[in-house]
Specification:
There is one protein chain. The chain has six helices and eight strands, in the order βααβββββββαααα. By secondary structure, the protein is α+β, with helices and mostly antiparallel strands. The two termini are 36 Å apart.
Length: 198
C-alpha cells in the first residue's frame, strides 16, 4: 500500500527534505513562494472568533529564525488570514496575541509539491521503477530522533556523525556506508537546531 502524500510539512522537515538550511525555506516563504499556516483554538478578532488552520505572515515569525545570534523560543502571532488567502485580520483577544513556536509553523503539502515541481527539486533523488535508494536515510532519521529523545544530544557534531555511521554499519543491507562528509551534510540542520544555532 502506498502512503498518501503529507498534508503538511514543518519547516524543519522541508530543510531536511531539500538538504538546505532552515533559512532557505523561510526565504521562500518570505518571497511568497510557500504559504505558512498554523492551527490553534479560536481567538477573538474584533467581533468574530476565528480558529483552526489559518495563514500566518512568515515575516512576523522571523524572531524564530534569526541568522545571527540565538532565535526566540516563541513569538507572538498578532495577525492571521484565512487558509485560502484574504485580508489580514488582527487578533484582539488575547491582546498579546498567540505564542507560536517554530515547530508550530507548517507548509501545506500542495504548496510543497508545486514548489518542488517548478524547481525540479527532487529529480536528483528519483530512482528507476523498483529501484531502492543507496542508503536508508528515512530509517536513520527515525532512529536518530529516538536516540536523541532517549539519550539526549551528543557532546559534539563529530560524535553524532560517528554514531550515525555506526548505525549504518549495523543496519546496511548492502554493506555500503555513507562517507563522513555525506552524513555531516545530512544532519547539519538537525545539529544546528539541537545546539540552538538554527
Amino acid at each position: 500500500m502506498n502512503a498518501s502524500p503529507s498534508a503538511f510539512f514543518s519547516i524543519m522537515e522541508l530543510a531536511i527534505r531539500w538538504e538546505c538550511t532552515l533559512h532557505k525555506v523561510v526565504d521562500a516563504a518570505v518571497l511568497g513562494q510557500l504559504r505558512v499556516v498554523v492551527g490553534f483554538a479560536p481567538v477573538n478578532c474584533g467581533h468574530q472568533r476565528i480558529g483552526g488552520v489559518v495563514q500566518v505572515n512568515i515575516a512576523d515569525m522571523l524572531p524564530l529564525f534569526r541568522r545571527m545570534g540565538p532565535s526566540d523560543d516563541t513569538t507572538a502571532l498578532r495577525r492571521i488570514a484565512p487558509y485560502d488567502g484574504g485580508e489580514w485580520i488582527y487578533i484582539t483577544d488575547p491582546p498579546e496575541g498567540v505564542a507560536i513556536r517554530s515547530a508550530d509553523l507548517l507548509v501545506p503539502g500542495q504548496d510543497v509539491q508545486r514548489y518542488e515541481d517548478e524547481r525540479d527539486l527532487l529529480r536528483r533523488s528519483t530512482h528507476s521503477a523498483g529501484g531502492t535508494p543507496r542508503y536508508d536515510w528515512d530509517a536513520m532519521y527515525a532512529w536518530l530522533f529516538k536516540r536523541i529523545n532517549d539519550d539526549g544530544v551528543p557532546e559534539s557534531q563529530a560524535a553524532l556523525v560517528g554514531e550515525v555511521q555506526e548505525w549504518f554499519i549495523r543496519n546496511s543491507r548492502s554493506g555500503k556506508v555513507p562517507e563522513d562528509s555525506t552524513i555531516r551534510k545530512r544532519i547539519l540542520v538537525i545539529w544546528r537546531v539541537l545546539v540552538g544555532r538554527n
